[in-house]
Specification:
The complex is a heterodimer of chains A (111) and B (119).
Chain A lengths: L3 E2 L5 E4 L4 E7 L6 E7 L6 E7 L2 E5 L2 E6 L4 E6 L8 E8 L7 E2 L3 E6 L1
Parallel strand pairs in A: 2-11
Antiparallel strand pairs in A: 1-3, 3-8, 4-5, 4-9, 6-7, 7-8, 9-10, 9-11
Chain B lengths: L4 E3 L2 E4 L5 E6 L6 E7 L5 E8 L2 E4 L8 E5 L5 E5 L8 E8 L13 E2 L3 E5 L1
Parallel strand pairs in B: 2-11
Antiparallel strand pairs in B: 1-3, 3-8, 4-5, 4-9, 5-6, 7-8, 9-10, 9-11
The chains are: A mainly beta (111), B mainly beta (119).
């Protein structure tokens, strides 16, 4: 069993739709959860980071963590074509440890 | 402020040859990480430097890979001899050490990656 499971997609939705992306994980030591966005031929860029269980909102983006289910989500409201990218979940037990990534979900927002 | 830079952007070599990848972190960042993404797989952690010292090299696949960080500034990752399965994208990331001894993660900023193709 992989430490982090993420559906690679592609996930194609029309502009303006609400997008739901998610990951499951198996290591209960993970405490910090991140979502990175990666455009083609670029490096991953941090979007959101949350600690333990709960929600965090930043503009059109909301990150949710449910540690009891080992399940994390990223919601994108009013999706735009510029949101088309690969979204990677990542997690760590903390500090300066290396990150454990999911495979990434390729998201396509259709104009 | 310049971001993390990596050189070369793309390298094509033959099996058995040697390749050296370079990463220049954001100025002032003590932490430097190497990651690798093999096609169809997730990005995997390789190793972590704090300044010039290797903090964690648990992800290094084998002794054909050698990472150095001279003077705690830029880092190199050498693959010698390269094998077909080494093909992939190698990412470098750096972070500040803003909370020494604390457990809050420092934001890791990624470079654009080096795409390595071994033929």
């Amino acid at each position: 069993q992989k430490e982090v499971e993420q559906d690679p997609g592609p996930l194609s939705v029309p502009e303006g739709a609400i997008v739901s992306l998610n990951c499951t994980y198996s290591n209960s030591a993970f405490q910090y959860f991140m979502w990175y966005r990666q455009y083609s031929r670029k490096g991953p860029e941090l979007l959101m980071y949350t600690y333990s269980s709960g929600n965090k909102e930043d503009g059109r983006f909301t990150a949710q963590v449910d540690k009891s289910s080992k399940y994390i989500s990223l919601f994108i409201r009013d999706s735009q074509p510029s949101d088309s990218a690969t979204y990677l979940c990542a997690m760590t037990s903390g500090g300066a440890d290396g990150l454990t990534f999911g495979k990434g979900t390729h998201l396509i927002i259709q104009p | 402020e310049a971001g993390v830079t990596q050189f070369p952007s793309h390298s094509v070599i033959e099996k058995g040859q040697t390749v050296t990848l370079r990463c220049d972190p954001i100025s002032g960042h003590d932490n430097l990480y190497w990651y690798r993404r093999v096609m169809g797989k997730e990005i995997k952690f390789l190793l972590h430097f704090v300044k010039e010292s290797k903090q964690d090299e648990s992800g290094m696949p084998n002794n054909r890979f050698l990472a150095e960080r001279t003077g705690g500034t830029y880092s190199t990752l050498k693959v010698q001899p390269a094998e077909l399965e080494d093909s992939g994208v190698y990412f470098c990331a750096s972070s500040q050490d803003g909370r020494r001894g604390g457990r809050l993660p420092d934001t890791q900023y990624f470079g654009p990656g080096t795409r390595l193709t071994v033929l």
